[in-house]
Amino acid sequence: MQPHQRIIVALDVQDAASALELAKQLHGMVGLLKVGLQLFTHSGPDVVRQLADHGEKLFLDLKLHDIPTTVMRAVASAESLGVAMMTIHLCGGADMLASARLAAGDQTQANFDCGIPLLLGVTVLTSMSQEALHSVGVPLPIEEQVLKLAELGFDQGIRGFVASPHEIAPLRCRFGDKIKIVTPGVRPEWSVKNDQHRVMTPREAIDAGADYIVVGRPVTAAPDPHEAVRKIIQELTV
Ligand code: C5P
To answer: Residues 179-192: pLDDT tens digits?
Structure first.
């Protein structure tokens, strides 16, 4: 994979017009564009269709978590939008994960050109502290809980995981190259951290074993997003 194909830009902007403008500026520069809850709840599936019509590969980050039938139908709907990646919460349980996988197709065959979207399991949100995890009744240390959920997902045929920089190594150690890892919380040296705490640079995250990195505000809030992406590609290339 070429370095620029590993970059996913999070289109965390307020409306479809801003998303399409950003997509125009970055066209052909990165691997995928990510549509998350903010943009989707504002502009709906239309913005996904418009971006797809523009020729973009898309990651729909809605972190699905519901009863198995509902998730299966939502995955099928997302698939019909032509997205290449989408997220589901692993804590939805084995039946929900099996239903999602059934709707998406064989994950060992998922690649961007075959029409089978890559399902990405979300383990423990990076915003959850150990204390917060305990408060919702989970007694395990965060890293053990991450691996436990990833095992559950792997057993149900999930082959992609969202992992913060510090979870890349344990996941890679456990599953080797059988899984894809997508890592948010990435900050180039020249950018501000915002609310991300345990960050790595794009280069460090790829060197640690991430397949893809998600970058939002360092690009979307930059005076010149095109130049910001160019600098990240340069960092990944040298
Ligand atoms: O602006 P920033 O680079 O922090 O954006 C990161 C993106 O990745 C956001 O869209 C955020 O929702 C997403 N994300 C994250 N941490 C996770 C999962 C997703 O930051 N654990």
So the answer is: 999 999 999 999 88
CATH H superfamily, domain 3-237: Aldolase class I (3.20.20.70)
Q: What is the pLDDT at residue 129?
A: 87
Looking at ligand 1, which residue's alpha carbon is closest to its atom 5? 216
Low-confidence ranges of the chain (pLDDT < 70): none
Measured from the CA of 127, which atom of ligand 1 is nearest?
21
Which atom of ligand 1 lies at the shortest distance from residue 126's CA?
Answer: 21
Q: Which two tokens stand for residue 151?
A: 């095992």
Ligand 1 centroid to Cα of residue 50, in Å, is 22
Ligand 1 centre from 76 Cα, in Å?
Answer: 24
Ligand 1 centroid, distance to 238 Cα (angstroms): 25
- Break the chain into its structural domains and give their ranges: 3-237
Among 26, 83, 21, 22, smallest CA distance to 57 is for 83
Task: Write the DSSP assignment of 3-57 as a string of letters.
Answer: GGGGEEEE---SSHHHHHHHHHHHTTTSSEEEEEHHHHHHHHHHHHHHHHHTT--
Q: Which atom of ligand 1 is nearest to the CA of 217?
A: 1
